[in-house]
Fold each of these.
Amino acid sequence: MEFSSKLLETAVNEMSQLPGIGKRTALRLVLHLLKQPKEQTSFLSQALTSMREEVRFCVSCHNISDVDLCAICSNEKRDHQIICVVEDIRDVMAIENTGQFRGIYHVLGGKISPIDGVGPNQLNISSLVEKVKSGEVVEIIFALSSTIEGDTTNFYIYKQIQDYEVISSTIARGISVGDELEYADEVTLGRSILHRVPFEKSFKNN
Amino acid sequence: MEFSSKLLETAVNEMSQLPGIGKRTALRLVLHLLKQPKEQTSFLSQALTSMREEVRFCVSCHNISDVDLCAICSNEKRDHQIICVVEDIRDVMAIENTGQFRGIYHVLGGKISPIDGVGPNQLNISSLVEKVKSGEVVEIIFALSSTIEGDTTNFYIYKQIQDYEVISSTIARGISVGDELEYADEVTLGRSILHRVPFEKSFKNN
């Protein structure tokens, strides 16, 4: 791609560093900004810079937060004895949206993946183990993705907490609500039969 | 979407102002920036701001340029008597990539579209008409998109320059190279027959 302006080229190059944004999309986005009032670009730049420079993580659960202790961890109405372990802050948002969980979270910041150079030390695992050791935790719910990396991470953490008095569980795997049986993959269908729930329970939402 | 951080929320909101970027994609992009070194965010913000604040447009063809007269307009090897009229600077880049055009460009900045509130006065039309009036132009090639708005814009400009001694042409419409005939739409196929080219000419690239 040949650019008639160095400024434009630099902007497109930086924009195309973002995941899933190729050079052509980057050019489209940058030209869009050019057609908008200058304020839009300065608001965007300012928002990104402030976010990157000033954002903090909750000292307890490692969720993104503007204060030391996030709104969930500092909420006394939530059950601090039940911890849901997730990879990412997006997972926290997804679970919060369901309105089904009244405990607190622990954000690992990823999963163990030797291929990507992510070992246990890069993740927020030790602080979780410390919480379990302190004896304040009754249940740990593992809500990682159902992949080899997710399972490895689950297992690694489980090994470290199994000797303590804490209930470990994983979120249920099964056929999605609204999905047809015939299109489900074998493993999921198999697990859904293995982990079947009593009929009366399946109607309840809580 | 519930955010645990105001800084994050603002960044996602600003990012999702961009065309084709929804809230979920914006969140993914912003969280990606959070995982990268701070420099990446500051480079991106800086590049966007500089571009928006400092970018200039060629005084002659209205292409984006860092100097008053763009590299194409100031290139003496190019034929200044042939002007290719395009909507957008992306079209300039696309035509330049073909290596088939040795004239200069005139970037309108859009096309006449009453629905979007774009009239002839919002476009760089008068400066094009002035160039024709000055008598320095031998040929005007219209290379706008083949839509109602594109045709309207073509026609509007043509009306204003038809009394001057200048050749007007439009780029050829036809079956794309590599395309199967049976999948072509009727209008395109019809035009490709109407505007057929002598057989010997069809082999030449220039």
Note: Chain B touches chain A through 60 residues (CB under 8 Å).
Amino acid sequence: MNIVLLAKQADQHEYCIRDPRQIQHLRQHLDVKIGDCLKVGIQDQERFDARIIRIEIHEIWIERLSKQVIPAKIPVTLIVALPRPKVLRRLIMDSVTLGVEKIVLMHSYRVDKSYWQSPFLEQLPHYVQLGLEQAGDVMAPEIILEKRFKPFVEDRLALWTQQHPTFVGHPYTDQSMPYAYNQPCQVVIGPEGGFIPYEIDLLKENGCQIYHLGNRILRTETAIPVILSRLFI
Amino acid sequence: MNIVLLAKQADQHEYCIRDPRQIQHLRQHLDVKIGDCLKVGIQDQERFDARIIRIEIHEIWIERLSKQVIPAKIPVTLIVALPRPKVLRRLIMDSVTLGVEKIVLMHSYRVDKSYWQSPFLEQLPHYVQLGLEQAGDVMAPEIILEKRFKPFVEDRLALWTQQHPTFVGHPYTDQSMPYAYNQPCQVVIGPEGGFIPYEIDLLKENGCQIYHLGNRILRTETAIPVILSRLFI
């Protein structure tokens, strides 16, 4: 936790931290005292330095000091086949920490249909918060759920691809993922076990470019930082 | 699991898979049948295609077909402050999957001493196996435990650094991590909460170069794929 991220609220001089997770972190890991300075963010608004002015059992009160710069996003829409619930948390946290602007969780042939009923999907805003707190960011990315592969690719991704290129990570191709691209783009990552040939063909027909990441097959959650770090340098 | 990795053993024409985890994966995820082809590796030896010739309840027998190429390693020694036990598994798996040649788990001021007693440390060979199976690799990296920071940095890392450069990932510096370096090197990553100033000074005095990874603070386990993907393109 590199900032304490509070829910969206009206502008004021003093703020109160009440989230038990944040209180526990401040007490146990940082052992905070009155007068200590903290980095604080208000979600989707701003980030500032703050000073602790009162500590109670379930509340820590802070006063606002100087405004701080919010780290820039990377101009990427990350499109990922919905992973197993256990992987979802890490995937969202990492993508948010790395500064992804928009995330699409999409269906694909090898995505188990039961994943769409997972209670973890209701936890997405919490995972986003954790990712923002790690990065010192406050702006939540947009997250879109696309439960049908074909209409998503044909009706929406195809249009986006006319604006900015779409790079698909896939082991079975001759061309290697570009690096230092540093321009707006979409990145597509398949499910565990990969896309089926029909899906790769449909992506290609709709303008997507298929690239490999070397001769080692990576897990989805490892492929994301690898691709983003390679494209945005 | 992109290959079935078997323990080191004498060269033969037929092999038997007995590990319950591997058997379960082959049955449940791949639904294998007699005559199916598999990718198989013998740890620290070789990799080949194989055909299933017999399926019993607790055993799957295969016959060896043609030899396959083992994916190349990246020429890096990854030096990481020992993370929380929960993070250790993922960190080792990812590093092995990405092809790291040698891993040093080292002590640092912000590493809780109790981590060195964790039973997870005895599981390292298992995590290595999982990482190799993901990558389709068979060569286990060397793993070294360094329980004292200063003697390690002064007596060993300093010597390595005379041969190949050592890049330390650290948020508080002006210089940005190089990219497309593609040469042998050491990479150092600190603990949760970062290195303390004394440690950064000691690393510098011993020839290490300190670089940031942008203005977002990453978790150890995210920083590893980000740095490796940036240095080795």
Note: Chain B has two domains: 4-68, 74-231.
